[in-house]
Fold each of these.
Amino acid sequence: MIRKRRRVVYRKSARNPLYAFQRLLKMPAWKLILGALAGLFVYLFLFNSLFLSPRNTLIWKAIFGDSKYPDGYSVQGIDVSHYQGTINWEKLRDATIDGNPVRFVIIKSTEGKSSLDENFNDNFFQASQYGFIRGAYHFFVPGVSARQQAEFFLRQVHLTDGDLPPVLDFEKTGDMSPAEIEKAALEWLRIVGDHYKVKPILYTYYKFKQKYFSSDKFKDYPYWIAHYYVDTLKYQGEWKFWQHTDFGRVEGIKSYVDLNVYNGSMYDLEKFTISGGKEDDE
C-alpha cells in the first residue's frame, strides 16, 4: 500500500517563524537595510544607557565587583540628597570609610530655578551640628536661565565661614550647544562666586569636563570629578575632590551613598573653606 506524502502547509501567521522567515526573504533590499540600521541604533542606545552612563553602577558593579577605595587619601567624605532618606547623624559622626573618619558632607540643595531638595535644610543643619565640614551643591538644569538658577540657589542656601565653597553640578546637556553650555556654566559660577567672594567648585564627570569645560576660562575653578571603577585618575589637571563611587556604604545611612576623597590634608581642606585662609591673609 502506497501512502501519499502529506503536504506540509505553513500557517500564514506572524507567530510562525518559518512563515515569518519566508516573508523576510521576499522583502525589498532597502527595507532590510533600513531595518538593520534601526536595530543597530536601538542596540547602541541601550548599550550607552545601560553600560556607558556614569550613573548606572548596578551594571558596572556586576561586571567589576565592589568598588575599591583609592589609595593615598586620608580625608574622606560623602555627598547626600533626599535619596539617602533620613540620616542617623549620631552613627554617621562615628562612621569610617576605609578606616578614616567621615570629614565632610556635601549636600544637594537646589535644582533648576524652583526645586529645593526636600531634605536639604535638615541635612545642612545637622551636618554642622555634628561637626562635619559641610557644603551645598546646585544641580544645573539645561535650557533654564543660568541667572535664575544662580539667584534661586542664593535665596535658598546661606553658606557661612567654615563651609565649603558653593558647588555647581553640571552633567546634563539637553539641547544646548557646547558654546551655550560654557556660557551658562560661567554665568552661574560668576554670579554665585561674586556673592560669596570665592571661586565655586565645578562638579562633573571626567569625559564631560574634557568635552565642555577644558577651556582656560575654567582653569581657576576648583574641580570635583566623578570617575568610577578606576584605581587612579588619569585626569592631568588639578582637582580638589574625587567621587570614586556612588555605591558606597557608611554607618548611619541605609541606602547606597556617594563616596569622595579630598586631594590634600585635613589642614588643606580647612583652609579651602570659606574664609579658611583668612588668618594667613591678615
Amino acid sequence: MEYQKPTMEQRAEIITQALPYIQKYYNKIVVVKYGGNAMINDELKEAVMGDIVLLSLIGVKVVLVHGGGPEINEMLGKIGKKSEFISGLRVTDKETMEIVQMVLAGKVNKNLVNLLQGKGGKAVGLCGVDGHMIKAKAVDERLGYAGEITDVNVAPIHDLLEKGYIPVISTIGCDADGHTYNINADTAASRIAGELKAESLVSMTDIVGLCRDKDDPSTLITKVHVSDAPKLILDGIISGGMIPKVNCCIEAIRRGVHKVFVIDGRIPHAILIEVLTDAGIGTMFVS
C-alpha cells in the first residue's frame, strides 16, 4: 500500500490535538534519559534532538541526561581494553575511568550540544563534576570507580533552565577528595528528575516498554502503579535487566516525579508521541 502524506487539514488536526498537552507541560520540567540505539543511529539521533528542541520552543523545560555505553566500548576497544560488567555495572579501573570521562563529558556531550544548537535550540553541556552537581562514592570495591549517588545539587540546572537553555548532562560524579565516578545513566536521570520535582521522566530504551511476554510486543503493559511492581517482579514479568530500570522509575516517582515513561527510542519522534498525544507508545509508571 502506497504511503499517503497527511493533508494540510490532517496536519492541522494533529496540532490541535496536541494543544491540551502543550498547555499541561508549559513551563514544566521534563527529564529525558537518552541512550541505546536511538543514540548510535544518526537518523534517530537527529529526530530526537529535533523533538527536544521543539518541546523547548513550546515552553517545556527539557533536561537531557545521557549515557554513552557503545561509544565507551568502542574507545576501550581501540586501546585493547575489554569491557567487563558485574550486575549490569561497568567495572571501572583508573584507566577506564579516564576513558569514560573523556568520551562522556567530551565527545558525546559536546556532539549532542552541537546537534541541539544546529536544530535551533539553546543548549549547554554539563557533567556531574561541574559545581559538584553529582556527588558520589564507590558502589563496590570490585567495580572500582563505578559510583553511586550520595547527593545531587540541581542549582546549576535550574540556573540554565531559567535562562532558556537545555542542560545536557553526562553522568559522571565526584567525591570531596576529587575522585571521579562513572554513574549509571538510568540512576542519575531518576535522581535528577526527583530532585527537580519534574513533571515527567522519559526513559528511552531499546524495547517497546514493559511487556507481560517480553518476546511479544502486543502484550505491552501501558500503565503500572508503583504498588504493583513487587508482584510483577514476583511473577517474572519484570526480570533481568528490567529490574534495575524499573527500580529507577519507582525511585523517581517516590522522589516526587509525577509520571515516568519507558518508551522505545527506536521509533522516530517517540518523545512527541508519548508527551503530546493521547496514544502514547510505552509504559507509564505512576504513584
